[in-house]
Design goal:
Blueprint: H1 2-16, H2 22-25, E1 32-33, E2 39-40, H3 47-77, H4 83-108, H5 114-119, E3 121-125, H6 133-149, H7 153-161, H8 168-173, E4 175-179, H9 197-202, E5 204-205, H10 210-222, H11 228-242, E6 246-247, H12 254-288
Helix pairs in contact: 3-4, 4-6, 10-11, 10-12, 11-12
């Protein structure tokens, strides 16, 4: 049985990756997979946006630093603090503004700072979770070297060499800059073609295998953007695989057949779910109620 399952899975993989369908279903090969084999859809922030966000952040930190230095100078001029204390305050201001402030901001906002808020980015862990104090502190300490001491040169070089535009601080902290302003694409909702309306009322459409159903749904979503030749070829191949689950088979073009089958299955499954919800609603008093006089614990 295990051998048969492996062979069937292997056949499904071969069907999905046929040469004439690669251009239609080719996805990004840089997705992150967790230990539970879950693929995370992490959209990295572009290089230009990362540079713009870093500039905004460090300009803000520099303004705060200038304000603290001016305050220390005024206190020193008025004799409130002597030169030794003023020197210590200068160093403390630099540490607070370039290390402490970025750490506190990113920790408190879970990866959002002023620059990231403007560019629509967020710093997250490599598994997609929110960063903590350790991640923010590591990024700030390494950022002092790669952004401040090298005027951003080291960070730019590392980000250009990394496919996900991570700088050295991200690599050492295990973090990732995620773009949260991705435009939402509309989903195509297929309907039964008008010339197949009569067929849909009497057709017997069995449940499609999960792999085949996913490929049909992907094709119907991507069909408008496909080349006409590839669109017709993929539709014909999918229709050939769908035909054994349909009775009677309508006299229609392959793409219309796929749209009709998908719409019929969606509508009938929606009706089945609505009936199940209605039955559960009628049974809810019996399922949640208690026998009169029985104590509630």
């Amino acid at each position: 049985m295990i051998g048969m399952s492996r062979r069937s899975a292997r056949r499904d993989d071969q069907v999905v990756l046929r040469a004439d369908q690669v251009d239609a279903f080719d996805g990004p090969g840089d997705e992150l997979v967790t230990g539970e084999a879950v693929a995370l859809d992490l959209r990295p922030t572009g290089f230009v946006l990362r540079v713009a966000g870093a500039l905004i952040d460090y300009v803000a930190y520099a303004l705060v630093l200038v304000g603290l230095i001016v305050l220390v100078v005024l206190l020193n001029d008025r004799g409130v603090v002597d030169d030794a204390v003023a020197q210590a305050l200068y160093v403390s201001s630099i540490v607070v503004c370039l290390i402490g402030l970025p750490t506190v901001v990113e920790t408190a906002t879970h990866g959002r700072s002023l620059g990231k808020l403007v560019t629509g980015a967020r710093i997250v862990r490599a598994d997609g979770g929110a960063i903590g104090l350790r991640h923010a502190l590591t990024r700030s300490l390494v950022g002092l070297l790669e952004i401040v001491f090298t005027t951003g040169g080291l960070a730019v070089v590392v980000a250009l060499l990394d496919r996900s535009t991570r700088r050295l601080g991200d690599l050492m902290a295990g973090t990732y800059s995620r773009n949260e302003r991705v435009p939402q694409t509309g989903r195509v909702v297929v309907q039964v073609p008008p010339h197949l309306g009569g067929w849909a009322g009497v057709a017997d459409v069995a449940r499609l295998p999960d792999a085949l159903a996913r490929r049909v749904a992907s094709f119907l979503q991507q069909a408008p953007a496909m080349a006409p030749a590839s669109r017709a070829r993929v539709a014909a191949d999918l229709a050939t695989e769908v035909t054994p689950f349909v009775s009677p088979v309508p006299q229609a073009d392959p793409e219309s057949l796929l749209a009709a089958v998908s719409a019929v299955r969606r509508e009938r499954e929606a009706v089945a779910l609505a009936r199940e919800a209605a039955v559960l609603a009628r049974l809810e008093p019996a399922l949640t109620g208690t026998v009169p006089g029985f104590p509630t614990r």
